[in-house]
Design a protein that fits this description.
By secondary structure, the chain is mostly beta strands. The chain has 1 helix and 10 strands; from the N terminus they run E-E-E-E-E-E-E-H-E-E-E.
Length: 154
């Protein structure tokens, strides 16, 4: 089973609200799933994983200070990309990542226990792309690791 999400990017900054979300109207759309400016991706699934940043430090007196920061990372598994027919998807993601600000819309990936954002909203994210090549089957597995951008961004 696959679901469909939408991504949008721009070089214009749109400040998020107090929940860290941006209204779709602010982004110039009422329905990202039917807007040609938004990139639609079929996905196998997505889930949150905490990412810990920072290190423990030891002060001169031997006191150990725990200083990690936990970041909420959404890992999205894109449906397998078949080479060469579907490689345009990878090119489109690359174009999307050239812009400074990216926004994620949940599309059909909507579950009661996994609230990506509120209704009529999208979330600003910072995306890291990874691609695994399976040369035997002629497919590529694309993973997007999306860190929710802080409300204080840019």
């Amino acid at each position: 089973m696959t679901w469909r999400i939408a991504l949008y990017s721009t070089n214009t900054y749109y400040p998020p609200d107090s929940n860290g979300e941006v209204s779709l109207a602010t982004l110039g759309t009422s329905d990202p799933m039917n807007d040609s400016n938004w990139l639609k991706l079929d996905i196998l699934g997505a889930g949150f994983a905490p990412t810990i940043e920072g290190d423990d430090t030891t002060t001169v007196g031997g006191m150990r200070v725990i200083n990690p920061r936990v970041r909420r990372t959404l890992e999205i598994k894109v449906a397998p990309v078949v080479f060469p027919d579907d490689c345009g998807i990878i090119v489109a993601i690359g174009r999307l990542l050239r812009n400074r600000y990216c926004y994620l819309y949940r599309g059909t990936y909507d579950f009661a226990g996994l609230q990506l954002h509120g209704d009529g909203k999208a979330v600003p994210v910072v995306i890291a792309l990874s691609i695994e090549h399976d040369y035997e089957s002629g497919t590529k597995m694309v993973t997007l690791k999306c860190d929710y951008a802080a409300p204080g961004m840019p």
